[in-house]
Structures
1.
Amino acid sequence: MPDPKIGHDRETRRLWPALALPGTFWLIALFLVPIYAVMAVAFSDRINLFGEPIPAWNPVDWQFGTFSTVLQESVSGIYQEVWIRTAIYSFWALVICIVVGYPVAYYTARLAGRRRGLVLALILAPWWINYITRMLAWVNLLQDDGYVNKFLGLFGFAPHSWLNGSSFTVVMALAYGYLPFFIIPLFASLDRIDGRLLEASRDLGVNSVRTFWAVTLPLSRLGLITAIVITALPMAGDYYTNTIVSGSPKTNMVGNQIELFLLNGPQKNLGASIVLLLSIVLVFFMAYYLVLTQRASRDTR
Amino acid sequence: MWLTVGLGAAPLLSACGDKGSASIEGGKAPYPLARPSHPVTLSIKDSNPPIDDGLEPESGGDFKILNYSDYMAPGVMKAFGKKHNVNVQVTPYNNYDEMLAKIRAPGESFDLVFPGPSVLSKMVYAELLQPLNHSYIPNLANLWQEYQDPWYDRQARYTVPYTIYGTGVLYRTDRVSEVPANGYDLMWDKQYAGKVYILDDLGEAIGMSLLRNGITTDINTGNAEYVSKATDSLIELIDLVDVKVNINAYSEIPEGTATVHQGWSGDAIAGQYYLPKGVTPEVYAYWRPDEPTERVIGSDVIAIPKSAQKPVLAHLMINDLLDEKIGLQNFGWNGYQPPITKFDADFLVKEGYIPKNIMNAVIVPEDFDSGLTFYEVSPATEALWRNNWSRFKAGA
């Protein structure tokens, strides 16, 4: 008589890899193949009749001339400013996300009580409306004779031109657009903190401010980092936000440069090279994130 | 990052496996580059003949047009669809790069497309277009003589003209008190900061800077120093006036979003249809150089893609657009003038299509004798202009 336990084990042994199949397929079809296509275009040195690169599918044919030019121009040439701008905008938008998002997530997880469902629904409400539509709504609010200027006028402020290629507007728009992405993972992490730890802290005579710094913040660190990563990655590749609220070359980010080459002209090898560079930069941050999470999970153990 | 890669990969993949995939070497064009002094007769291959005479027009299903948005009157399309029992569909593009990408997309077909002389030779060489059968287009006779046999397409083998236009500057008369002799200077004027726009078209933008700065009147120049100088001057605009780029002068000026906007003559004429309630056309005006030899002029054409599923209907629509009545209806909607002989300035003003103060936006045949036109240039020159344009777009 076969041992039912062994049969079960054999089944699960097949089941686990099977569960990974959709994910593996997803990864190959939607990440590895596209990134290979990007490389084939970036490393091509032949152009067709329309000035477009002819993809070099065979790695033997890869030429790195275009890529190294783009790299050079990124480090100390015409794209340098675009990269710096992208970093600065993403950084400040993240700071705003943290300053605004952390208290909201904290309130929702710890203090909202029975209203928690409602608060969560309100945080997610913007997602019911298309991102572009929301940004266009801001254009209406921020234009010279828009409600924002009218409101400021009540306090005697002269109308300000918000949409004239202003870095401030772009940063605010980015922060606004990505804030829900920031709050949700942070909320999940704050929500998981065992309330008894906080009680213990208070029982030991620590006031609530110190409890926050000594208990809550360290325990939510992983959630905070996840939230930062989840918001920072798409922000760095964003191009439509500043197209809508600024439209000036002054505020162009890396995503706009990629858009210019890939969607508005044949020089797709330049665009593909920037895509690769951006990916490399982000992979670097991603790796740092993985190290941090590993370390954090070791610490909690 | 995944987002970026995902967005990037789609157009990349669509670039693969197209018709014109032969590589070109050394920056030289394998096709003829037409100039008024060197007119080109585009070749017709046995493998790509025009349709036969006297065919019955197709009916039912979709009739697919590839065109700029807002470039053909909805009323004209609707009437055509009703008459021939087809559903007229427009796939829009913002510039020729986008048009070329869409027309070359594998498996895609269009019945009508609206290119221009600056991309024509290349498109014919890549067999993207089919030759026309003139027996379906008797209205060709309604056009200016020179456009029945134009320099870029002798014998009108592949194209008929659609519109003619000039490039200049639209400005708000209520905010601009004085127009300098060199009207392009309006865009380099700090007092209009934040409300200055240039065309999102690398040829028009850099070409305008070449002229404004007196660098050269050859707006097709392959001289790297000239193009670079002109681009530097455009880059100045970024800090000087917070310059912005789009092709919506026809609405931005009447609505007041822009004070100064580089724009086409058709935008100046169409602007009257975009005025807010109670505002009269006098609120804006159009500037072009006085000297005919310094004026930038251009034309767009109509052609039938090789992939057309309804080529007979496509011929009929071309004939319709050259019809005096339908042509006028179309012009009355998009503001872009067809080179129909009957439509001279007096006629258009009398019919009430042109407000008095923008009479100078009407194009006359003489404009084409001496004006400056964007030609089809060599791949090397094209790359030079593109590289400079991306320098401007980087805001460096």
2.
Amino acid sequence: MTSKFFLACLAAASLASAEVKVIQNATIMSESAKGTFNGSIVVRDGKIIEVGQHVTVPPGATVIDASGQWVIPGIIDCHAHIGVDGGVNEGSVSVSSMVNIKDVINPEDIAIYRALSGGVTSMNVLHGSANAIGGQTIVLKTRWGSDAQGMIFEGAKPGIKFALGENPKRQGNPEGGARGGAPVNVRYPATRMGVEDVIREAFNEAVLYKAQWDAYDKAVAAGQHPLPPRKDLKLESLKEVLEGKRLVHAHCYRSDEILMLIRVADDYGFKIATFQHVLEGYKVAKEIAAHGGGASTFSDWWGYKSEAYDAIAYNAALLAKKGVLVSVNSDSLNGELMRRLNLEAAKGMKYGGMTREEALAMVTINPAKQLGVQDRVGSIEVGKDADMVIYDKDPLSIYSKVQKVLIDGTQYFDRDTDVSGRGAKEQEKQKLIQEEKAEDAKTASPRRRAQ
Amino acid sequence: MKKLITSLLFCCLGALAQAPPTAVAISNAKIVTISGATITKGTVVVRDGLIEAVGDNITPPADALIIDGAGLTVYPGLIDGLSTVGIPAPATPTRGGRGAGAAAATAAAPPAPHSNGPEDRPMTTSWIKAADEIQPTDHRIETARNEGFTTAVVFPTVGIFGGQGSIIDLAGVKTENMVLVPAVGQYIAMRTNPNGFPDALMGVISYVRQTYMDAGYYKLSKEVYANDPRGMKRPEYNRALEGILESKRILLPAERLVEMDRMLRFAAELKQPVILYGLHQGYRAADLLKKNNAVVLVSLKWPEKPRDTDPDDEDSLRVLEERKKAPSTPAVLQKAGIKFAFYTDGVEQPRDLQRAVKAAIDQGLSREEAVRAFTLSPAEIYGVADRLGSIEKGKIANLLVTRGELFDDRTKVEMVFVDGVKHVPAPEPAGRGTATETAGGGVNQ
């Protein structure tokens, strides 16, 4: 009875929004002037309200004793494809800017839980790279157990996917245009020149579209009542790009196509927020820095496709040295690489001699800046969302394991609960299997007898 | 001459004396009225296709053919809430259709044009009305009647915007006398296009969204033009958008909880009254559905373990749980007070249907509610409860007469009345099987 009451209290406490939590005696590692130090963190209403070596523990606070453990800011993946229902590519057309990942969020995709268990608390969920201009993207928090709306990182800027090179031109190749063994319609473009043309044509249209709407808005403001232009979802999102309301995340590999995209963006007066993958970015780091674009790359992946042969593991470090804001991402479809992003970041120390904090920044504050959410997440600072990961050992070591993950101060992952709950889950599953078998035998037997 | 007149007169008199009964009365039967209390022993009188009287103290009219209902139960005729019965099988195969059947269908139908975007209106036949497609000779009409169905809400279901549904009675020589309501709403499916746009779910959603925006714009342009056509280019006639504007409600698919949430939000965004169909994870969705005041159609094709799979492959806990709990959906909906009706979803054999409903009853659905979900509830959902769905004076005489309680193992459909006309189910399909065998034997000889 007492234990039941205690459990009920616990449940009530974890739901209460005004709850105060203190993570005590942890090794706190964050991208901030303080560096890595031993201390405690106080969380109230989902926000960090105090960080320091000595904090005052408010009365009634839930204390998480993290002695001997490490705390880092929640990991942010700038490029993921998880939690998406019904395909990540609207690849039938070369410009699919009318589609939106927001419409097909699947909060029950198990990959989200995997990512969470690896310390990822925010992720940029992108459309695939099948076309030159892809679909609209969305930033989610891995609030496992919430519905689709509850996952959305409210306040984060929406984005759109662009893609250059092999992927968007592959379907233009009559020999390469097969999908699932069945031939598909050959789709323009088939070359890198064509990819540029598709983007330019789309923006030519968008510029006209914007002019129509601007004229309409002006007329309405002047008290007239004209018939509005037709709303076109494809051009609507490109209009937002032109207006700076939507971030462009461009999948790219080769230096020539990166320069091409910068020229196109300059011509139409918009910015590329992030160059994604950008394996040859080190060759044109100065130009990327001058454009003001970020780079979100892989750690040390090489040679997996024709445009990845000039990749070097020093890419991230070299880009950073030239003043480019760099993150490393997972490009994950199933949450697998995504749950080891701490190690992907750590590789920056081996290749290019980054400091510990610089390496960690590539999966925390840097992607936060690239997504325009640096005031909310990415570091352990007063006023920020209490998105944090507790590790048992140094997070940049392969021996470390995630112990707990907090998002907005709420604990969404606990390793002990997960591990201890596995037996019961397996039992439940076996029970259902046995029941089904028994049911099967019951219904099948008369038929067998009849035969 | 006089003799002739006399004999003619005699003839007429004779005919009058032996006039066929113009009404039917089922007496001494148990009557499950659905709208009111069940009558343990009463009479239903049917005349001119309508229910003339019902009660426990009714004297059958003198001109009525009397059916002794002792041991029989009379229910309102069953209504299939979403069906394709009466519409010939689609000529175009759905995506992933394999095998000879699909190949033959592809050969027969002209290939669908490649779609390059929403403007091509891919997989859209929103203007089609099921009523115009009905073929009274479709053998599935009889099969459904043998199950106890007298009415079906039939939709053209090919493509994304399939077309507009119609309520039809399941008997008639001509389509005209089968149709009760020609247009009740638009059937929408979240299907991808094997021939271009859209080839992902998000493409389908954005296509539907764009089409509704276009329909709104089309309506506005037409109004402006009608108001003052001079100096304005006329809006081009567009049958796809006309079909959208004609539809007063939409049907959206939702099997999983995530899909129910998604589709309810989508319908709200489109500002369309919606009926969700599918609902196999409805057992998880009571709160969501209640909060949204949702109206739903529950498929009776419960998820089953696929046959001939590797016995060593174990399904995930999620999949196992859904198979176990899906039939508890109706009970959960009933308890939460959510408006729902059943649809057969291809469960066409009486025995399979009985099993499917029984599975729901075994998981807590009351028997009355089970019958209601096939009678008055679908009538209410489609706004025809003033003429269908219960046994009341003045309503259409669609009745189901059984021996035994409906959805019980050994219950037999004795007869159905459609628009007051009696139909007796043919003997079990075994008879037909024998006939086929005989014919086959003949060929062999």
